[in-house]
Amino acid sequence: MQSTEKISVWEQLRIACTKPRQYKKLLNLKKWKVAIFTLLLGLVITLLGPVMDLAGFAVSVGGPKNFVMNRLPAFELKDGQLTLDHAVDFNLGAIHISADSSKKNVGKDDFDEKYSDEIHFSKNNMAIKTSVMGQTVTKNFNTMKNVTFTNQDMANLLPLVYFMVFVALLFVYGGVILQYLFYCLLISWLVSLNMRTRNQPMAFGKIFQMSIYARVPCELIGTIGLTAGISFFTGIIWIMIGYMVSYQLMMMGLMEKKAKE
To answer: What is the 3-state secondary structure (H, E, C) of 34-96?
Structure first.
């Protein structure tokens, strides 16, 4: 048997995706190696998902500055009111954005359930829905009567925007890892119950460690599918398939381990 001490991150990934019956090799890895694998996996998911979305959008519009100066309609926020040459409606990565100065106000009724993150602009205010904070926020422009803001002002702020995007991606990265571990925890709980009913109890820590690897294939497939814009990967059917596949991969690994013992 290959020494678990010599199993590289790449080999861990290969076993996780293609060799579930060899999951037992991964159970004796040191905790810090499993932690590093999880952090790197979270980075890969973030790069394949949100970062790829942003990069694709930037390329499609000819770069951020060209987007602000030439693709966005000419706009001006002045004396507490927003005016635009024409209305716009588009997606920036996973964020849905619309702006229409012919509308006097926007609010919760303008949000669409199919989007988790949205920003809407009207003549007198803006409304934001964010999945990170789990709430909606409305900002009235009449509190900004001394502010004048145009396309050129936005272009001048792009360096700050880049920094804010970087900080936001760090939070997204943390959220990806926490969500991933939550899914693993749920799968581990189900597998643990199954093992007890079989009178084959196993330390929950070992089950949880195995779930980190069993979740990898579906997580990568789902992330790539979302980035490709395939709506199937946003539905409850895919979520259930992901749980069932991860569960079965774990059971294959555990049954093989028990058989060897």
So the answer is: HHHHHHHHHHHHHHHHHHHHHHHHHHHCCCHHHHHHHHCCCEEEECCEEEECCCEEEEECCEE
Q: How far apart are CA 54 and CA 38, in angstroms?
A: 23
pLDDT, tens digit (0-9, with 9 covering 90-100), for 101-154: 999 999 988 888 877 789 999 999 999 987 655 678 899 999 988 999 999 999
Beta strands 135-140 and 125-130 are: antiparallel
> What ranges make up the beta strands (E) of the chain?
75-78, 81-84, 88-92, 95-99, 117-121, 125-130, 135-140, 149-150
Q: How many residues comprise the chain?
A: 261
Asked if 34 and 177 touch (Cβ cutoff 8 Å), the reply is no
**96: phi then psi, degrees, rounded to nearest 5:** -90, 130
Which token pair is 88?
């716009």
Whether 57 contacts 93, CB under 8 Å: yes
Amino acid occupying residue 75:
F
For the chain, the average pLDDT equals 88
Order of strands, sheet of 81-84, starting from the edge strand that comes earlier in the sequence: 81-84, 75-78, 149-150
Helix (H) or strand (E) holding 231: none
Task: For residue 145, give both structure tokens.
Answer: 């009567």
**Which tokens in the block code for residue 232?**
């199937």
pTM of the entire predicted model: 0.76
Tell the residue number behind the tokens 């998902």, with chain if given: 49
